[in-house]
Write a structure and sequence with these properties.
Elements (H helix, E strand, L loop, with lengths): L3 E6 L4 H11 L4 E7 L11 H5 L8 E2 L8 E4 L6 H11 L3 E3 L6 H10 L4 E4 L5 H17 L7 E8 L9 H14 L3 E4 L12 E8 L6 E7 L4 E7 L4 H14 L5 E3 L1 H4 L3
Parallel strand pairs: 1-2, 1-4, 2-3, 4-5, 5-6, 6-12, 7-9, 8-9
Antiparallel strand pairs: 7-10, 10-11
């Protein structure tokens, strides 16, 4: 069995700790590093203890260790540029699971993919990516529907999420817009905006409690409608997807890959 040696960047965060816990139990993976920024209170702690599992005898560090196959980033938008630079310098594959990236960080990722293999997706969830394929197929079928189909996307996340709409909602919209040749967007509605333009996708972001993420895609026609819903009950679905992406990247050449590639869709 081939074992993939993985470093988790953003190890002390909620997602980082779950990556450590689940990754350390996967026989196809070996956690060889846990990274946080210099000065973080978790520096020096055992990564396993931090994650609530048996000690891994790997301290949380502020630098990238040797003997690494893949780096998984689940940190924060302002921390991604540094790990992209490190992976470029060391020619290491990178799973970019952090969302809400600024345009300059997105451009840096695209540029880096000419030299190293990168999986970058707005969601690592199998269910989300499968639903994206279903939404894409529905949009293609409804493109010529008599009278047209209106598209609304409603997403709900926990109160701590800082970006809106979610990157996943925007990706749903991008795929649908391409299939239906839509160019307009509406982000929420209030007052008297008038009749709904057909050539737009409406986005609505809800922030409440500890919801790990759900998306509703509505195709509204005259006399009938289609609704697709994908909902996470906890964050482990994103962790499993990110770790699957790490295994996928181990033998890949330079390029920008999506979860569609990882999942064979």
């Amino acid at each position: 069995m081939v074992t993939t040696r993985v470093v988790i960047h953003g190890a002390a965060g909620r997602m980082g700790r779950r990556l450590l816990a689940i990754g350390s139990a996967d026989p196809e993976l070996q956690i060889v590093g846990a990274m946080e920024h210099a000065g973080h209170p978790a520096i020096g702690q055992d990564a396993g203890t931090l994650a609530g599992v048996a000690p891994l005898r790997i301290p949380v560090q502020d630098h990238l260790p040797d003997n690494v196959d893949v780096v998984v980033d689940f940190s924060a938008p302002d921390a991604t540029d540094s790990i992209v630079s490190l992976c470029l310098e060391r020619r290491l594959p990178l799973v970019m699971a952090t969302t809400g990236l600024e345009p300059h960080s997105q451009q840096a990722l695209r540029a880096a993919s000419s030299s190293i293999p990168i999986v970058w997706a707005p969601s690592m969830s199998l269910a989300v990516n499968l639903t994206m394929k279903l939404a894409q197929a529905a949009a293609e079928a409804l493109h010529t529907y008599p009278g047209g189909a209106d598209v609304e996307i409603i997403e709900t996340h926990h109160r701590f999420k800082e970006d809106a709409p979610s990157g996943t909602a925007l990706k749903f919209g991008e795929l649908i817009a391409q299939a239906m040749h839509l160019s307009g967007q509406a982000h929420g509605r209030h007052g008297r905006p008038g009749a709904r333009p057909h050539d737009e996708i409406g986005y609505h972001a809800v922030r409440a409690g500890d919801n790990p993420g759900e998306h509703h895609i509505i195709f509204g026609m005259l006399g009938e409608s289609i609704e697709l819903t994908v909902r996470a009950s906890n964050r482990d679905c994103y962790v499993h997807g990110a770790l699957q992406a790490a295994k996928f990247l181990r033998q890949r050449t330079a390029g920008l890959y999506s979860m569609f590639d990882v999942l064979g869709m």
